[in-house]
Write a structure and sequence with these properties.
The structure is a single chain. By secondary structure, the protein is an all-alpha fold. The chain has two domains: about 120 residues, Endonuclease Iii, domain 2 (Orthogonal Bundle), CATH 1.10.1670; about 110 residues, Endonuclease III, domain 1 (Orthogonal Bundle). About 55% of the residues lie in helices and about 0% in strands. It has 13 helices and no strands. The longest helix is centred in the middle third of the chain and has 19 residues. The chain is globular. Bound molecules: iron/sulfur cluster (SF4).
């Protein structure tokens, strides 16, 4: 596709955030009861749908392994079996073990201690753990640790490229910087939405201890925006044949796209 940056990508990201909040309200992402459950989910959701992760989390929970001691003590073979439904189960079981080994070696097995580390330092440490990449590290920092960092996923990239806010080949950290610059001074999300707006609202997750956890305004905004972008990506901005006509972001498409629709790509 043609790659042309808009003159004000930050303004566009802010407009997307406001438009989506008005249309859909809170998304209650990340669905989990403890920070450790967020971390396990962030590792298991790599390259797979959340529904597959839910099955794996249920297996871990019912076997008593959905906690730090549980992952530490369960055998690798058993762990592989428990997380099988999330796909790439051998690597993912190993990644869970790698994370707990890191936590034990560096922070005496304490997430509380780990999350007191400065964001940039902890991010570097997490990225050094085998199997933890940028998106997983940032999800751990934001959703489990309440650090002020935006999570970039494939949906966010696709949406911003299609709206010409970023180049097709933009790097992960470039997109994260853009979202953080755009949203860092936004107001906290009101937990209601405008009933007069008649867009179909996607199904949201049930409230959970982690989705309701007390956060600073900036982490709450980053949390909500990521959840909203996931919903746009899952329900409208498909890789093939995006359904722009029904999408709440259609009025923010570049004019040429609004005129010609998805076939313009
Ligand atoms: S579906 Fe269309 S309007 Fe919605 S985010 Fe994707 S490109 Fe934009």
């Amino acid at each position: 596709m043609k790659s042309r940056k808009t003159s004000k990508p930050e303004a566009l990201v802010r407009a997307m955030y406001r438009q989506l909040v008005r249309a859909w309200g809170r998304q209650h992402w990340w669905p989990a009861e403890t920070p450790f459950e967020v971390i396990v989910g962030a590792i298991l959701t790599q390259n797979t749908a959340w529904s597959n992760v839910e099955h794996a989390l249920a297996s871990l929970r019912s076997s008593g392994a959905l906690n730090i001691a549980g992952i530490r003590e369960v055998s690798l073979a058993k762990l592989q079996e428990l997380v099988r439904s999330s796909g790439c189960y051998r690597q993912k079981a190993e990644r869970l073990k790698n994370f707990v080994a890191f936590l034990d070696a560096k922070y005496h097995g304490s997430l509380e201690q780990m999350f007191t580390t400065a964001t940039s330092q902890l991010r570097s440490e997490l990225l050094a753990v085998k199997g933890i990449g940028s998106e997983t590290a940032d999800a751990i920092l934001l959703y489990a640790g309440n650090h002020e960092i935006f999570v970039v996923d494939a949906y966010t990239r696709r949406i911003l490229v299609r709206h010409e806010a970023i180049e097709t080949q933009a790097k992960y950290d470039e997109i994260r910087d853009l979202a953080e610059r755009a949203l860092r001074d936004e107001e906290p999300v009101a937990p209601t939405f405008d009933e007069a707006i008649d867009w179909q609202r996607p199904q949201v997750h049930l409230e959970s201890a982690m989705s309701q956890a007390k956060r600073g305004p900036r982490t709450q905004i980053y949390n909500e925006m990521h959840g909203l972008m996931v919903q746009v990506g899952k329900n409208y901005c498909h890789k093939q044949e995006p359904t722009c006509d029904a999408c709440p972001l259609r009025t923010l498409l570049p004019k040429m796209r609004q005129r010609h629709g998805p076939q313009a790509w």
